[in-house]
């Protein structure tokens, strides 16, 4: 105990000298800048693997160039800054320690100007420059100082502790309202320093507030990770009035921004897989699998997960590229070995016309022993792993269900499913002054789409829209033969 107290005291005396780059005040942090960068570098790899970057490199470069200019004029210009657009329909933005900032394609769709994007980028850059995530990590370590302090300072003992073993925990730390207010203030300042109208930032927050919680799947939505400070929009406008230069034209960049996001995938991308009833269909990989009725199915970039209604059983489907000549039993043996799973005697079979192999397996966790069935299907250059598992005492109840999912694997031949395309952002030039509802109905939308389209443009249905304004609508992919006069 004496040695622990001496160690703790010496650590605190060192870290207490850290100075916050934004406020200039001393603060207690248990993570050095080198460790912060190391965390961010590791988590960035997980972002790329679990979420992926948006395929449009021109759009990504546009966002990155603007964000990097701001970051390099901030209080921490020497961080290895990286600004990216991730391929997620969820409306959010997030920052990782060390200078990694991400916008989802989902949040880009709800922005209406370059200035609005700059405001959100400034807000997220502010979380990094003010070291908000690092402060949270430090508080978490201090809360368990008897067990956790050594993990931060002794490289041999999990450099970042149990809290951040996965990138997901690091990506979506929930900030407090004080942190949000400070990042709002920094977003306004960074926007003005870059020559942008920070009032657009307040406009976007109105949209995000109207949306409320619309998160789903593995990525939380904006309000899940950015709690709403009181009077946020009003405070931003007040900060703008105080700080804005009176003799300087500030950039909004509405049409330029909308041109950049024209064609942006909106919502879920069915090319990456979608549910049709209880059948999962993947057009690009051309396969289908039937999941149990009434199970909750989530499709992520890394796997398809399904959970039983009672939450006592799960199924996951993953795919791996394999070399020519790979056998299903050979792939199964490597899979079990690499994942340290105990497995029993299996059987070679054919599923949907493809070579397959299945075997029972067991895994011991800290909470319980799980039993399951695993199926492996070789389809061209891909090996698909289908694992169903449950608590040991319920294995017999679910065994047939697990085997049924494996047996359902088949080639996707449904032409409508193979040809399905995502919805995309398109632009519509308003011909004459009319209400937003009239504009969208004239553009070809139906009544059920009005609420979504007004939110997308931060309008109200009865709000008048002037002639010549450029609004966002949502369409199937643009037909090259379609008359595009409205978007000129």
Structural commentary:
The chain contains 18 helices and 20 strands. Mean pLDDT is 84; it is low at 3-16, 144-172, 213-219 and 477-488. With 488 residues, the protein is α+β, with helices and mostly antiparallel strands. 36% of the residues are buried. It has helices spanning 2-15, 33-50, 57-71, 105-109, 114-129, 132-143, 145-153, 167-171, 177-193, 199-211, 222-225, 232-243, 254-261, 328-338, 395-407, 415-418, 436-442, 450-456; strands at residues 82-86, 93-96, 100-104, 265-266, 274-276, 279-282, 287-290, 296-299, 304-307, 313-321, 342-343, 347-351, 354-364, 369-379, 382-391, 410-411, 423-429, 434-435, 464-465, 470-475. Helix 5 (114-129) packs across helix 9, helix 9 runs parallel beside helix 12 and helix 10 (199-211) runs antiparallel to helix 12. The chain is globular, with a radius of gyration of 26 Å.
Write a concise synopsis of the structure shown.
With 488 residues, this protein is α+β, with helices and mostly antiparallel strands. The protein is 39% helix and 21% strand. α3 packs across α5, α5 crosses α9 and α10 runs antiparallel to α12.
């Amino acid at each position: 105990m004496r040695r622990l107290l001496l160690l703790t005291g010496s650590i605190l005396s060192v870290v207490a000298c850290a100075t916050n780059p934004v406020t200039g005040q001393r603060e207690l942090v248990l993570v050095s800048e080198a460790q912060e960068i190391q965390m961010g570098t590791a988590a960035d790899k997980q972002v790329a693997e679990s979420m992926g970057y948006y395929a449009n490199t021109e759009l990504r470069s546009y966002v990155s160039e603007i964000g990097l200019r701001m970051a390099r004029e901030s209080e921490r210009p020497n961080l290895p800054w990286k600004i990216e657009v991730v391929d997620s329909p969820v409306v959010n933005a997030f920052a990782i320690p060390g200078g990694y900032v991400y916008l989802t394609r989902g949040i880009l769709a709800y922005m209406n100007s370059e200035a609005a994007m700059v405001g959100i980028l400034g807000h997220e850059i502010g979380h990094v420059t003010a070291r908000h995530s690092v402060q949270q990590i430090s508080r978490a370590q201090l809360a368990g100082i008897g067990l956790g302090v050594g993990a931060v300072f002794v490289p041999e003992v999990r450099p970042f502790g149990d809290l951040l073993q996965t990138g997901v925990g690091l990506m979506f730390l929930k900030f407090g309202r004080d942190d949000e207010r400070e990042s709002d203030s920094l977003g306004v300042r960074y926007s003005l320093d870059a020559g942008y109208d920070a009032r657009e930032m307040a406009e976007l927050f109105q949209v995000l507030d109207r949306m409320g919680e619309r998160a789903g799947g593995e990525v939380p939505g904006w309000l899940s990770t950015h709690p709403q400070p009181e009077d946020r929009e009003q405070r931003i406008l007040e900060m703008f009035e105080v700080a804005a230069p009176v003799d300087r034209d500030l950039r909004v960049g509405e049409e330029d921004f909308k041109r950049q996001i024209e064609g942006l995938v909106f919502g879920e991308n069915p090319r990456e897989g979608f549910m049709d009833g209880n059948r999962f269909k993947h057009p690009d990989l051309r396969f289908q699998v039937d999941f149990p009725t009434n199970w909750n199915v989530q499709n992520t970039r890394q796997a398809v997960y399904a959970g039983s209604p009672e939450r006592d059983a799960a199924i996951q489907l993953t795919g791996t590229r394999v070399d020519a000549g790979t056998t299903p039993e050979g792939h199964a043996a490597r899979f079990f070995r690499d994942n340290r799973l105990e497995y029993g005697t299996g059987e070679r079979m054919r599923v949907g016309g493809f070579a397959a192999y299945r075997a029972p397996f067991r895994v011991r966790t800290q909470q319980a022993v799980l039993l399951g069935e695993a199926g492996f299907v070789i389809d061209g250059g891909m090996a698909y792993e289908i694992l169903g598992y449950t608590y040991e005492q319920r294995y017999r109840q679910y065994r047939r269900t697990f085997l049924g999912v494996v047996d359902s694997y088949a080639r996707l031949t449904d032409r409508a499913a193979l040809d399905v395309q995502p919805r995309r952002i398109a632009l519509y030039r308003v011909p004459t002054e009319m209400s937003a509802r009239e504009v969208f109905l004239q553009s070809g939308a139906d009544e059920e789409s009005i609420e979504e389209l007004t939110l997308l443009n931060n309008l109200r249905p009865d709000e008048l829209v002037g002639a010549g304004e450029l609004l966002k609508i949502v369409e199937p992919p643009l037909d090259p033969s379609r008359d595009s006069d409205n978007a000129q």
